[in-house]
């Protein structure tokens, strides 16, 4: 309902608590998350403490280009999920994008690209200037 009216989310209060002035833990803001499935077509180099990959490169089917780069996702991975994804990324790749890139994303210069290998469901609050 909140999303249909283009609201960010809803505010709710515990039913067993009275109304009081000021902030309290009795109130919660619940933000709406959207989700979409995308094909993984590459990854960026790891940074910081990561040793396997930095972010996954995502693409959606496109009637003109075959695959269209829609952005990258690199957060909220558990250690177990990082290991599972790393195994699926093995098998080589190249420096030439396998999806049409319509953005000037400088972080893609050293990326490893390959044909779609698996699909992920991405949860997000919004799409930024450089897509996901």
Automatic annotation (TrEMBL):
Coiled coil: none annotated. GO terms for molecular function: DNA ligase (ATP) activity. Signal peptide: none annotated. InterPro entries: DNA_ligase_ATP-dep_C, NA-bd_OB-fold. GO terms for biological process: DNA recombination; DNA repair. It holds the Pfam family DNA_ligase_A_C. Residues 50-128 form the DNA ligase ATP-dependent C-terminal domain. Residues 1-25 are annotated as: Disordered. Its EC number is 6.5.1.1. Keywords: Ligase. It is an enzyme of class 6 (ligase). This is DNA ligase (ATP). The lineage of its organism: Bacteria, Pseudomonadati, Pseudomonadota, Gammaproteobacteria, Lysobacterales.
